[in-house]
Amino acid sequence: MGKYSSSASWSDITPLPLDEGGPNPLAAIAYTDEYCEAMSYLRAIMAATEHSERVLDLTEDIIDMNAAHYTVWLYRAATLFTLESDLKAELEWVNDMAQTHQKNYQIWNHRNMVVDRLGSAEGEASFVEVMLGLDAKNYHVWSYRQWLVKRFGLWEEGEMEFVERMLERDVRNNSAWNHRWFIVNGREAEGVKGITDQKVRDREVDFAEKALERAPQNPSPWNYLRGIMRAAGLPLGTLKETVVKYADLSKPDAVRSSHALDLLADVLAEEESSKEEAVLALDLLAEKYDPVRKNYWEYRKGLLGEVAAA
Amino acid sequence: MAPTKDDDSLAGDLNEEARIEELSDEDGIPFPGRHLTKSYLPIPPWLVPSSLDLFPEDHQTATSEAYTKVQAECLPHLLGEDTQDLPLNKYRIPHLRRAQHAAFLHASLGDLPSAYIALDAARPWVFYWGFSGLTVLGESVMQYRSRLINTVRPMQNPLGGFGGGHGQTSHCAASYACVLALAMVDALEHVNRRTIWHWLGKLKQANGGFRMAENAEEDVRGAYCAFIMITVLNLPLELPPSSPARRAGLQRFDDKLGDYISTLQTWEGGIGASPPCSEAHGAYAFLALGTLAMIDAPHIIIPKYLDLPALLRWMALQQTSPEGGFAGRTNKLVDACYSQWIGGTWSLLQAALGPNAPEVQGKDLWNKAALVRYLLTCSQQPGKKGGMRDKPSTRPDGYHTTYALAGMSAAMNQYTYDAEGPVRDERGRLMAGFNWKAEGVEKKVLAGMGVEESGRVGYVHPVYVMPFDVVEGFREKFPSCGFEVEGAKSE
């Protein structure tokens, strides 16, 4: 007798056994008896669209055995909302689950639905920071953090300080750079200017330049600077002074960053008079500083037109 | 085995066996795997000592430490200093272990131990990975036809779509994988096209995107999966009357989709999963470009919605040096699965530059040889087991095996878009995904990658990630929208 079939509180349910379509299914999993039984009760419950307290126990049981089971998560959420359950208690349970199943899509979608319904982000930011302590680049966690900020308007509730803490810990954490971009620029549609505002732009350029001093070959701040210029509609030549600190064609043996050389090539390509120098920068990349991307650098040379062919 | 005629330029007249003897004697290193330090191919430029560690930095962080560690685990394999006892070809590069990888994939379709309960909601993926990987290796999967049809029958739900198993909620990923697996054994007649169309209508969102399931997360995976199903099954482009997106004024599955994809391109130039600002990620780049390439010709639609130069740059930067494979995000580590997500996307990107772009005539923008070297030296599991893995310190699985092989196919073959092909048929069906042509790279190019003729892998369609003949099969399977669409026209 299984846990459910021997339980008086489930005696009214006729379980729906697993249908594998025939005797010889493909990629047949050797399900444990516990999992098989719990799933057969879930199928019966779902077929009857029952949303009750015992559904919460059953779904918890199945999630313990298979946390990647999206059906169970979605049905659990529907049950919680139908019953108007205590969502704070739900979050505490999800906190434990999240730490043991970090790479799981479902947990974060569930959390998202629960917190949205709860209408309060209390404690969420600090929980997210704990999770990022375990895996600083977890895609789902960062996406969830964005949603929190937008949903609850947390733009100025310590979010910039949080990003700076993350970048202080690892200046190469590109997820943190991405969050910074979002915090700075995420409210353009609401009329709050980001890097299109001169003051904000100066601050962000300064921040990226300082990060480069620590690690010149870190692509994130280079991309950040390019992103700023593109979004602000400014020529890349605006960055020339910074770029030549790390890549100067008069000192071709002392290049400190391939990304600087790449940007220098683009800066030089902006002016007809310096296109020949852009070719030199791209040659340095192709031959010496970044040979794995030789084809790409050659392509970029091709874009310079006649000069490159000369 | 004497070198064959095709590789005279590189291998010269040396007899392979004699050469091995000679090296063993010279080096006198007694333990296996360490004696083949020389290669017929020169060490490629990105692996020569002067290219390694070009920009040493004092400031170390978790990211740079992880990077140094992976470089250290890959370099001995890349340089042939540690061959892991993989059998080598005449270029001193490991053979593709075709038989072992095929056995690994066949085994993944057989009985699985209880640890696979974790995959219970993702079982259709196992079918798709197995079939797709086997076909790249040149194996037929038709022997699985009736078992597949039976196994997926209880996964199809009465209200449309497939779940991950019997009684599971319909989900885009499960439906995508079931439909493609059925296509690969010519069994698409087992899909209920009418109900899947109704179900997909419920996933379309007012912003143009798609959810993965009702009430589930919305991201660009949903859009790609939906358009795969729409074009494979030739479903009507009109949204069903019950679609909630109709209330937002949308009438077709592709309404606002291009604009939605535009919003996914980030400050970095790459593409994220979902609005407002997910981090740029290689898998989502493939999904976004693949979606667009089903709707219109790549050179028309990709530059229309995306900043192509910024995207090209981001994609190029993901190829890691010295490993030669791809990382999925900026400052992340090489992983063989991105051989497909980024490596496989180059065909779409190069097509996006247009049929007459002089810069790409007969050239590639990326380094195919570097990817092949990574996959053959670092990604293959040594020993009896077979299968391919993310990187040497990880274990092989179906996901990595399939996408490593698909990426290898992108490197060993050329996929080009026929700009003369129709993007719509007379009934309005989206045809752009059917205009692709495949051709193996020239012998000389293959030899330059350190691969013998026998190491070639099959064609993988750059949009559908399946064999070309399967794509041809479903193009013809449902020549018309085979069911009448009652009341689908907007009022």
Automatic annotation (TrEMBL), chain A:
What Enzyme Commission number(s) does the record list for this chain?
Answer: 2.5.1.58, 2.5.1.59
Q: Which superkingdom heads the taxonomic lineage of this protein's source?
A: Eukaryota
InterPro entries (alphabetical):
Prenyl_trans_a
The protein's required cofactor(s) are namely: Mg(2+)
Q: What class of enzyme is it?
A: transferase
Q: Which residues form a coiled coil?
A: none
Give the CC-aspect GO terms: CAAX-protein geranylgeranyltransferase complex; protein farnesyltransferase complex
Provide this UniProt record's keywords sorted from A to Z: Magnesium, Prenyltransferase, Repeat, Transferase
Q: Name one Pfam family in it.
A: PPTA
Extract the GO molecular function terms from the UniProt entry.
CAAX-protein geranylgeranyltransferase activity; protein farnesyltransferase activity
Q: PANTHER family in the record, alphabetically?
A: PROTEIN FARNESYLTRANSFERASE ALPHA SUBUNIT/RAB GERANYLGERANYL TRANSFERASE ALPHA SUBUNIT, PROTEIN FARNESYLTRANSFERASE_GERANYLGERANYLTRANSFERASE TYPE-1 SUBUNIT ALPHA
- Could you say which protein family the record assigns here? Belongs to the protein prenyltransferase subunit alpha family.
Name of this chain's protein: Protein farnesyltransferase/geranylgeranyltransferase type-1 subunit alpha
Q: Which classification does the entry list for the species?
A: Eukaryota, Fungi, Dikarya, Ascomycota, Pezizomycotina
Automatic annotation (TrEMBL), chain B:
Molecular function, one GO term:
metal ion binding
Ranges for region Disordered: 1-27
Is the keyword Repeat in the record? yes
Kindly state which keywords UniProt assigns to this record, in alphabetical order. Answer: Metal-binding, Prenyltransferase, Repeat, Transferase, Zinc
Pfam families (UniProt xref): Prenyltrans
Q: Cellular component GO terms, alphabetically?
A: protein farnesyltransferase complex
Q: Domain of life here? A: Eukaryota
Prenyltransferase alpha-alpha toroid domain residues: 96-421
Spell out the family assignment given in the record's similarity comment: Belongs to the protein prenyltransferase subunit beta family.
Q: Record's PANTHER family? A: GERANYLGERANYL TRANSFERASE TYPE BETA SUBUNIT, PROTEIN FARNESYLTRANSFERASE SUBUNIT BETA
| UniProt-recorded name of the protein | Prenyltransferase alpha-alpha toroid domain-containing protein
Organism (species): Cryoendolithus antarcticus
